[in-house]
Write a structure and sequence with these properties.
The chain is mainly α. The chain has five helices and no strands. The chain has one domain: Orthogonal Bundle (Cytochrome Bc1 Complex, Chain D, domain 2). Helix content is 52%, strand content 0%.
Length: 121
């Protein structure tokens, strides 16, 4: 994974690349999981656990809780590029830019977004 950062304009292209493949691979890993909300070895799981878990597990500062379909519904109307841009830019009231991970690449952040989206689809 590269350490370079992309602009929001190129973020959509990046998501349809490596992160899209990772999302498809994760979905295939989860085939037959039952509810469809369990993701075994997703490439975004580690970033989620290190940088997203604290807020998204407890719903801190309006963060939609992981797996909460109702809370995620308005967000799922957005494209993955728009969701990634929200992570990159940060969101009020409490999400810092790049989810507080200054060393995370856009690919890593996109994988974390994909991991969270898969938990509610």
């Amino acid at each position: 994974m590269s350490g370079s950062r992309t602009t929001p304009r190129s973020a959509g292209r990046m998501i349809t690349g490596a992160s899209f493949v990772a999302t498809i691979a994760a979905a295939l890993l989860c085939t037959g999981c039952g509810s469809g909300t369990e993701v075994v070895d997703h490439p975004g799981k580690d970033i989620y656990q290190r940088y997203c878990y604290a807020c998204h597990q407890a719903g801190i500062a309006d963060a939609p809780m992981l797996g909460d379909k109702e809370a995620w519904a308005p967000r799922l109307t957005k494209t993955r590029a728009e969701l990634l841009n929200s992570v990159i830019e940060g969101m009020a009231p409490g999400m810092p830019p790049r989810a507080g991970c200054g060393s995370c690449s856009d690919d890593e952040l996109a994988a974390a977004v994909d991991f969270m989206v898969l938990r509610v689809e």
